[in-house]
Structure formats: structure tokens, C-alpha cells
Specification:
- This protein has 305 residues and is of the alpha+beta class.
- It has one domain: phage-related protein like fold, CATH 3.90.1690.
- Strands 1, 2, 5, 11, 12 and 13 form a 6-stranded mixed sheet that branches. Strands 9-8-10-14 form a 4-stranded mixed sheet, covered by helices on one side. A two-stranded antiparallel sheet has the order 3-4.
- Helix 4 links the parallel strand 8 and strand 9.
- It is flat and about 90 Å long.
- 23% of the residues are buried.
């Protein structure tokens, strides 16, 4: 926790606060930059632990001959996933002298900045599974990462599928991603296609994305071939928190099975209190509680990391 000391402190140019100061150039004095909301199911909770259980229902029925009993199936139970609330916080200690003598209302500035860093801190945290979709730190129901060629279902044959691409954003790689969604299977192993509706990409790729989806003819071709991707109903989402300049995703974001979640039990608060001493300083702290992750990643195609 930082301590904001008297305005005659000569370290780090703080003595400039004594007077005659025309302006303070502070690029952190701004509204919080929030980008993660479109990528998550934002869920409010009053529970310390929210548990998701992976199950699969019944398979197709078969032909039953006269006199034979109708076969009885059991539903399949898979893995559980717990979202356990975690507390995050920060604050500052403001001295009595700073409150009395500073000329720029530093306490007010810090309180505004505290709100900003709490909101942005959560947003940065929520970006991590997308920044590192193949990291073992972030796994779903089967302890498999977001983008993997070893995704599995619950059917008896343990049908596998891959939602991990390795190609740069292009017409060909988008066709591969579309085919992935066309050939998806459910946890019984039966065909269950989904419709992608959001393209997520690092800002470097925004011009490529525009060419691929807005050109009348196939981009980068000397032909009259119609660009069928132009007719896709795709939301374009430029995601500045992605660090790799090649990173892109295709999502079935509106699908009921989209399973990337953030459970929040406590939004950032603001508490003023005196420290347990005789300084008459003021402690300003903020805390929030949430947890995040994903269970099933089949509504996500990781185009390239």
C-alpha cells in the first residue's frame, strides 16, 4: 500500500506540490478501459463456490423387435468444475499533512484512480485465458486447455475433436474454423453443429478482418469470385489485451452452450478508515471478489495463438 506524504517531500519531484503548480499531467487520470464483458457470461452470485457439473443425456433409440424389452439407458456424468470466489484489493495511505497542504486535491485524484485500477485490474485478469489459450494454468472440465487438439466428449467411444488452429487469419483458415463448427458433436458423440457469430482478433489484424468480411470479391485474388464470407453474420471484436499480433478466435458467443464465465459476488467498494495509530492519516482501500474460467470450450475455435 502506497503512502502519500507531505507536499514538501523533495523526493520524486513531490515538492512541486507546494504551490505555483499550473497543471498535473497524469495519463492514469481516466476512465477504466473495460474489454472483457463481451467474452464472458457475467454472473452475479451470493455463493462462495459455484459448481458446474458436466452431464450427457440419452443416445438415439434403436429398433426393438416384437417381444423384446425397450433398452434402458443411464445418463452420463462427467467432471465437476468449481468457481471459488477470490478477493482482490489495493489502497493508499494519505498523511494528514498531504490532506491539509496539498494544492491539487491529491486525495480526490487517488480515489478516482483507485476505482480505475480495480476495474481495469479485473479486466486484465479476465484477459489471461485469451492471451494464453494453450496454457495449463487455465483448463476446463477435462483439465484440457481452451485451445487443444485433445478435446473429448462423454460418449463411450471418448470421441475427440480439435478446436485449435495454427494458421494466420485468412479465407482458408476461416473456412477451416467454419467447418469445425459444422462438424461439432455433443457429449453423446452425435452431430450437433453450431453457428459462429463473433470474430475476436488482436488490433494488428483489424484491416485483414475488414478485407475478409467486407470485400465484395475474394480478397487478394485477381478473379471475379464472390466473397461468401461477406454474408456471414459475424460481430467483429478488436481485443487490445491480446498480446500476440497473430492471435484470433472464432466464437459461437450467442449459443446456449457458450461456457466462459465470470462469477462476481462483490463489485469494487471504497472504504475510508483511520489506521490503528496516532498519525491521523487516512487509509483508502478497495476490494472485490470474483472468479472466472471456462468448462467446455467447444464454442471457441482458437484460430492462432
Amino acid at each position: 500500500m502506497a503512502t502519500v506524504r507531505t507536499n514538501i517531500d523533495t523526493t520524486s519531484n513531490k515538492d512541486a506540490l507546494r504551490g505555483g503548480l499550473r497543471n498535473v499531467f497524469d495519463t492514469s487520470d481516466r476512465d477504466a478501459m473495460i474489454y472483457s464483458s463481451p467474452l464472458y457470461n457475467m454472473i452475479s452470485t451470493n455463493e462462495y463456490i459455484n459448481r458446474d457439473l458436466r452431464v450427457a443425456g440419452l443416445d438415439y433409440g434403436g429398433k426393438v423387435l416384437e417381444g423384446q424389452q425397450i433398452p434402458i439407458q443411464d445418463p452420463k456424468f462427467g467432471q465437476k468444475l468449481d468457481y471459488q470466489q477470490e478477493k482482490w484489493g489495493t489502497g493508499a495511505r494519505i498523511t494528514l499533512e498531504m490532506k491539509k497542504f496539498n494544492k491539487i486535491d491529491q486525495m480526490k485524484r487517488l480515489i478516482k484512480n483507485l476505482k480505475c485500477v480495480m476495474l481495469e485490474g479485473k479486466d486484465v485478469e479476465l484477459a489471461k485465458p485469451w492471451v494464453s489459450p494453450t496454457s495449463s494454468t487455465y483448463t476446463g472440465f477435462t483439465s484440457v486447455v481452451m485451445g487443444s487438439d485433445s478435446q473429448t466428449t462423454l460418449d463411450d467411444a471418448a470421441t475427440g475433436y480439435s478446436n485449435l488452429g495454427t494458421s494466420a487469419l485468412s479465407t482458408t483458415s476461416l473456412q477451416t474454423a467454419e467447418y469445425y463448427f459444422d462438424m461439432l458433436v455433443d457429449d453423446i458423440g452425435n452431430t450437433a453443429p453450431k453457428t459462429p457469430d463473433m470474430l475476436v482478433f488482436q488490433p494488428t489484424l483489424q484491416w485483414t478482418a475488414a478485407e475478409l468480411f467486407k470485400s465484395s470479391q475474394m480478397p487478394h485474388e485477381m478473379s471475379n469470385t464472390y466473397n461468401s464470407q461477406k454474408d456471414w453474420n459475424i460481430e467483429m471484436f478488436k481485443y487490445p489485451r491480446l498480446t500476440s499480433t497473430t492471435s484470433w478466435f472464432l466464437l459461437a458467443r450467442k449459443d446456449r452452450d457458450y461456457d466462459v464465465n465470470c462469477f462476481t459476488s462483490m463489485a469494487p467498494d471504497l472504504v475510508y478508515e483511520g489506521p490503528f495509530d496516532t498519525t491521523r492519516d487516512t487509509l483508502v482501500t478497495s476490494a472485490q471478489m470474483y472468479d472466472y474460467g471456462f468448462g467446455d470450450a467447444r464454442c471457441i475455435f482458437v484460430g492462432k495463438t
